Amino acid sequence: MMKIQNHRLLLSLSLLLLTACSGAKREEPADAGVSTLLPAERNEVTIATLHRQPFSHELVSTGKIAAGGMADLRFESTGIVAHIYVKNGDHVRRGQKLAELDKFRLANKTAQALDALERARLELQDVLIGQGYAVSDTLRVPEGLTHVPADIMRLARVKSGYDQSLSQYQLAAYEEEHATLSAPFDGVVANLFSKPYNAASTSDAFCTLVGTQGMEADFTVLENELPLIKSGDKVVVTPYADPAARYEGRISEINPLVDEKGMVRVKAAVNGRGRLFNGMNIRVSVHRSLQGQLVIPKSAVVLRSGKQVVFTLENGKARWNYVYTGLENAESYTLADDGIQEGDTVILTGNVNLAHEAPVIVKE
Fold first, then answer.
1. Diameter of the chain by CA atoms?
2. Which residue from 121, 156, 296, 315 puts its CA 20 to 30 A from 337's CA?
């Protein structure tokens, strides 16, 4: 009987111990669940008051640099190239000699043409003397004989061959003069491949002269961007070959035609300081200042369900506002008057996970 009681006592103690252990195990996850589900959160934000202010609109495009002045230079007559004074890449001034032909044949041709002209002048005098004019008068032929009737003078010039001889002399003198190739404007020599003592061609360009003072940025804008630009607007040009360089200019012309792709060609005069070359690929930023705009930093605009939202601060809480942005530059948007107004306090940062009427703390 005593053994049965002892067994019952041991069984009761075992059940009590099991119950106590299971209760202790259930308490731990309960405490852990509370601390996980109810964290202490503080929404810290920065704010600014919305005001109307000038907005620097920036329109970005790509294009190429085109020389304001560029000419393919060629000799006016055939001959052997006697001297070449420049090479590719040389900067030259207007009127500077670039190359020269052997002038012996040309000078000889000019001398023969002058001799023929003098003989034609004497023949003209003989014709006029035959018409009854005094010898002293005919010494001033043909320019000085203003009193000779036009029909008689025309007949005398034709019979003497004076006009033909005069034109041949002028042509010979022109060819001799242009046997020296000179720069028509300041620029840089390019595409010069000829060598001395070789025959010059009158059909192929001897070299190309690229102007460096009047460089132009040639780029395109979308049709719907036309109202945002005008002649005289400031542009900043950055060559892809040198991303750190910046060259300023002004829009000089807008082509009044829209192509099949909805693009409009625009040109801007740029001061390249001698470092921009024809054909360079560039990035173009067009800047224009628009007055009286509601301007907001891009960080203040967040997306909710695909729509643009700006949070304003009211009585310590974030208020949700749908907005419509207009123009933009690298840092800011312009806003329409719908949604928020001038003077509202706008939340700039800390707004990524905000909800409507969530309490916030303003950072100092």
1. 183
2. 315
